[in-house]
Every structure is written in structure tokens, then in C-alpha cells.
Amino acid sequence: MPERLLLCTDLDRTLLPNGTQAESPLARELFSRFVAQPNVSLVYVTGRHKPLVELAIKNYGLPLPDCVISDVGTQIYDRHDNHWEDCVDWENQISSDWQGKSQADIHALLHGIGALRKQETEKQNTYKLSYYVPLFVNQDELMATMSRRLQDHKINTSLVWSIDEPAGIGLLDVLPQQAGKLRAIEFLMARGGYSGTETVFCGDSGNDLSVLSSSIPAILVANAADEVRTLALARAVAAGNRSALYCAQGGFANMNGNYSAGILEGIVHYHAKYKNNILADEETLQCQL
After folding, report:
1. Contact 128, 173 (CB under 8 A)
2. Which residue intervals define the domain Sucrose phosphatase-like in the entry (predicted)?
């Protein structure tokens, strides 16, 4: 068992059971018990902005994290007692990529690209410009057009594609090149002195692919879409990181591998010495039913 663990997890359809698949009844409570251990630091890594993260914590009874990486890796918040504090060092690190231009300036540079429909104001921030895109649009051609236009103005960006499955719409985020979920997790690892063996990431969607295919030990929950699973495996193999990607299958602790059940299954895959503690908690909860 490692002396400490930096557990980084996506929210929607990874920890939150808000997909179409069923959640194992005891999974979230087992997850909460696991992260309550003093050696575990919990980080929520999400496309949501902070008010929606707080709403998810309230509505789903989630444990409070130590940090939140929000807005697809463009904001980091540290929790101190009962308040959140912006990580100014992270903002300073990513700000140079946009050459002093604002989110509104970037939007103006992309004017006239017809497939892009700007998302609501509350889904934008200083270093995140988000669009809705119809699923029938050629994603690769669209992103190439956007990249060329921004590169002409020496704007260094990262374009992150994902799909809102319930709404049936594509989501496209324009971020500083140094931002994103992977870079933000690496920032926290460096800041806290965490090695790769002390870190685990959990995800399910397109905007998790950069981490799922990286050298950071990662878990793809069983409820992930087949398309995401195929892409994650292919990219992990291409990067030489196949051993750092675990695809949950179900069966551990009599659970189905979806959502938090998949997170726990993956943690045991990477850190087997946690297994007995989780199974003991599962037995205790079963006796309380």
C-alpha cells in the first residue's frame, strides 16, 4: 500500500451516476469511505465550473475534495476549511499562451466558422472558450480550420472534443496549450511531490483522453462509451502507455464496474493492498442493509 495516494477523478458519468447505466447500490458509500483515509488526497477533475461542482457535491452527497480542477483544466481551486482559493500559480502558468488576448478576442478570431455555437456565458471563463458542435460535422476538419486560424495570430491553443451523450451534441473547448486536465494534474503532482505510482486518474469521456493515454495510471470506468474505450486504448498503445490504462469490467466486490464501482476496481488493480479494506467495508455495509 503506498504511503499516500493522489486520487484524481472526473465527475459526470465517472463518479456521478448520471449516465444511462445502473450504479451499484453500495459503490458511492464505499468510495466515500475509501477517500476518508488520511493518506488519500481527493481531486475532482471536471469540465464543470465551480458552482456546478458544488451543486454535484450537494446533490449526490459526495465527499469534499482537497482540490478541484475545473473548466477542463483551466482553473484549480484548493479547499481550505470551508472556502475555496484560486490557484494563482496555475493561472500565471497558462496565461502566456494566449498572448494577452481575452476569451472574447479568441472568439472574434473564430468568427464565421459556421459549425460553432458558443455555449452559455456561465460555461466560459478567462481561459476557456466553449462551443456546441453538431455531431454530423467533420470534427477533424473543423479543428484543423480553427487551429490554422489561431496559429496565424500566434495563439497557442489546445482543442478538446467531447460529447454530451444525453443531449446528443458535441462539445469543443478552446484552451491555452499549457492547460487541460493532464497538465493540471501534472501541476498538482509536481506541487505535492507525488510520483506516478502515487497517482491515479479516473475518467470516461473524450476530454479525459489526454490523461487516459498518458503515463499516469488511469482507470476507464465500465460505463464509458465504446468509442471512447477504443480511442483510449489506441492512443495508450501508440504512446507506449498501455500498461497505465485499466478498463474496469465489473465483478470486484460484487459490483458492476460502472461509475464509483469502476474507480474502486481500478484502484485495487494498481494498489492491491487496498483490496481487503474495501471488501471489509462492503461486508459491513451489507450487514447494515
Report:
1. yes
2. 4-271
Pairing of strands 117-118, 83-86: unpaired
What pTM was computed for the model?
0.91
Q: How far apart are CA 171 and CA 184, in angstroms?
A: 20
Tens-place pLDDT, residues 71-129: 999 999 999 988 999 999 999 999 999 988 999 999 999 999 989 999 999 899 999 99
Measured CA to CA, the distance from residue 61 to residue 59 in angstroms comes to 6
Distance CA 213, CA 189 (A): 17
Residue with cell 478570431: 109
Residue pair 288/277 in contact (Cβ under 8 Å)? The answer is no
* Measured distance CA(38)–CA(176) in Å, rounded: 34
C-alpha–C-alpha distance, residues 5 and 192, integer Å:
11
Tens of pLDDT along 134-157? 999 999 999 999 999 999 999 999
Q: CA-CA distance, 42 to 8, in Å (whole number)?
A: 6
Q: Which of 72, 100, 86, 87 is nearest to 10 (CA)?
A: 72
Q: Are strands 129-133 and 169-176 parallel, antiparallel or unpaired?
A: antiparallel
Helices (H), 221-274: 226-238, 260-270
Query: What are the Cα distances from residue 286, in Å, to 20, 28, 279, 283?
Result: 25, 14, 10, 5
Cα 90-32-251 angle, rounded to 5 deg:
110
Give the chain's domains with CATH numbers. 5-73+184-288 (3.40.50.1000), 97-176 (3.90.1070.10)
Kindly list the strands in the beta sheet with 117-118, ordered across the sheet, starting from the edge strand earlier in the chain: 117-118, 129-133, 169-176, 157-164
Strand pairing category for 40-45 and 129-133: unpaired
